[in-house]
Amino acid sequence: MNEKAPKIMMEVKNINLRFGGVVAIQGVSFDIHEGEIRAIIGPNGAGKSSMLNVINGFYHPQEGEIWFDGQKRPSMEPYEVAKTGIARTFQNIALFKGMTTIENVMTGRQLQMNKNIFWQMLRYGPAIEEEVQHRKRCEEIIDFLEINHIRKTPVGSLPYGLQKRVELARALAMEPNLLLLDEPMAGMNVEEKQDMSRFIVEVNEEFGTTIALIEHDMAVVMDLADRVVVLDYGKLLADGTPKEVQSNQAVIDAYLGVPH
Amino acid sequence: MEILHMIFIAPFLDMVALPDLFFQGLWDGFVGGTLYALLALGFVLIFKASGVFNFSQPILMVLAALALVSFYEMGINPWISVALVLVMMYVLAFGVERLILRNLVNQDGNILFMSTIGLTFVIIGSAQWIFGGVPSSMIHAELGFPVGSSEMPMFGGAVYFEHIDISAAVLASILIGILAIFFSKTKIGRGLRAVADDHQAALSVGISLNQIWVIVWFVAGIVALVGGIFWGARSDVSFALQIIGLKALPVLIIGGFTSVPGAICGGLIIGLGEKIFEIYWGPMMGGSVEGWFAYVIALVFLLFKPQGLFGEKIIERV
After folding, report:
1. Does one domain contain both A74 and A182?
2. Closest residue of chain A to B105, computed from CA coordinates
């Protein structure tokens, strides 16, 4: 991240989200700077995934505003949010299990493919050029994430760590401005975590993609993130650099538990 | 010995002895097969796009055929009637998406399946109310399809070709071809498969479920109309066509629920199988085996290849 005054890419203001009587998020506000890696942490049930789902359009908060690229965003469906350049991965991997790796990644190009359907059916002219071009981009991403050896494998049969990587590849294929990662390293061993961390940093540095991620592994968060938001019981507990957050008494209490 | 001879030897001797009759059986079976394949594709379409066995597909066929005939009987030009039916199918697709599917996003497949059963009864009721339930005959002649038949000398005998059968086989094959390409080569085809696999993931890459669903239900409606015209021409236009529509089920079991080539192969296997069985083995069982033989073939497949010839073998990681 550069030291110049950061540009705010996304800002959530005073988000309140309830499911019936259950309050999932309560008056949470924070922002995401362009080009940074922003971590959202907190104990289980703190409302982290809910927050991501709000940003992504899966949940619609009862109160609060979302500002993206300097504009207030109206209530949007997830597929509309995707069109604004926000991609995501899921905590419990959501891949197209019947498809191969390359096919999964190609779905990420869905929005960019807009040649006439009749050309596509004829496999002729502009449509075939378009297909080739997108395929090339997907192959680059597959290379980048080192999943070349499983290009033609149906993803349902892949081990967990690789599925997570394919999911990341699909999100990257969308060439998003903002990438949301919901526990990208959950259930991985140390080596896989290191690989994934490396990929995240490289995506951020090479493509300049802004990343917001949820993660449980504190060591990883402290390493990766530029700034950290801490949620607890749906409320904002702290917001700052990893160092600031780490020394925050409220955060320490929430994580280690204090007698009430 | 007598009975073994009757089952395992005599039919084959008959086939060789009267090749023209055998060829006639093959041709009839082939025509039936392409039409079964077309029916099955209607199911595959919706199964691919929502992971749901659309129980209402046969009734869509009845509805399309019934509406077409009714419009014509009101004195409307036959081709304009076809256009009107297409409009009706689009409105239906739109309504199904708005009123049913939209509210069931991310629900279990069984729930969606139940909703299609409900839809079936709604359509049966309203179709009877609007168009009446009296069987009538299809207007294929008025639509310009050739009627009558020609006889071609072949294998020392003669084979009859009904002209409507020829049109049916040709048109069904063309439609199947277009659909196959539509599925495998286009962006929408890829979107369909994505939606069938995972709603959330599809949404997250920017695929609109609503749009995809309207498209597939409309295309399924078109398929139903073409199926309705030709099946209606082969028998009557009545609610009994539903039974034929359900023959797509064994076709799908053989071919796999998600596969276009599977639907084609399955359709042909059922079409040819039941025709040949009817001719050569039917008499010893007192005839009329056509009605149930398809299900016997399907049962055999269920025992040995439950995912069908071309079905996706889903590997569940535990």
Report:
1. yes
2. A58
Residues A18 and A56 in one domain: yes
* Domain shared by A245 and A140, yes or no: no
Query: Closest-CA residue in chain A for B194?
Result: A96
The identity of residue A112, as a single letter, is Q
Of B191, B206, B314, the CB nearest to A156: B314
Of A155, A175, A195, which residue sits at a domain end? Answer: A175
Give which of B253, B234, B262, B265 is closest to B300, Cα–Cα. Answer: B253
Backbone angles phi, psi at A88, to 5 degrees: -150, 165
Residue A90 lies in a domain: no
Prediction pTM value: 0.80
* CB neighbour burial string for B230-253, b if at least 16 within 10 angstroms, e if fewer: bbbbbebbbbebbebbbbbbbbbb
- Comparing CA positions, the residue from B17, B96, B2, B14 lying closest to residue B52 is B96
pLDDT in tens, B209-234: 888 888 889 999 999 999 999 888 88
Helix or strand run (H / E) with residue B220: helix B209-234
Contact partners, residue B240, CB within 8 Å, separation at least 6: B135
Residue B18: per-residue pLDDT: 81
Count of A-B CB contacts under 8 Å = 95
Write down the residue that tokens 């086989």 correspond to: B169
What is the predicted ipTM? 0.83
Q: Which two tokens stand for residue A230?
A: 């801490």
Q: List residues in chain A touching B: CB distance below 8 A.
A: 56, 58, 77-79, 82-83, 87-88, 90, 94-99, 103, 106-108, 110-111, 113, 117, 120-121, 123, 154, 156-157, 160, 170-171, 174
| B267 within 8 A of B37, measured Cβ to Cβ | yes
CB A15 within 8 A of CB A63: yes
- Which residues in chain B land under pLDDT 70? 311-318
* φ and ψ at residue A125, rounded to 5 degrees: 60, -135
The last residue of one of the domains, among A175, A196, A217, is A175
Residue of B nearest to A84 (CA): B206
Residues A230 and A240 in one domain: yes
Return the pLDDT at A203: 92
Give a yes or no: residue A91 inside a domain.
no
Q: Is A97 close to B314, i.e. CB distance below 8 A?
A: yes
Any idea what DSSP says for residue B136?
A: B
Alpha carbon distance B222, B310 (integer Å):
24
Q: Assign 3-class secondary structure to B79-101.
A: HHHHHHHHHHHHHHHHHHHHHCH
Give per-residue pLDDT as tens, A29-78: 999 999 999 999 988 888 899 999 999 999 999 999 999 988 899 988 89
| Cβ contact B182–A121 (<8 Å) | yes
Q: How far apart are CA A66 and CA A180, in angstroms?
A: 15
- Our count of domains for chain A comes to 2
Domain check: are A123 and A142 in the same one?
yes
The range of the structural domain enclosing residue A38 comes to 1-85+176-260
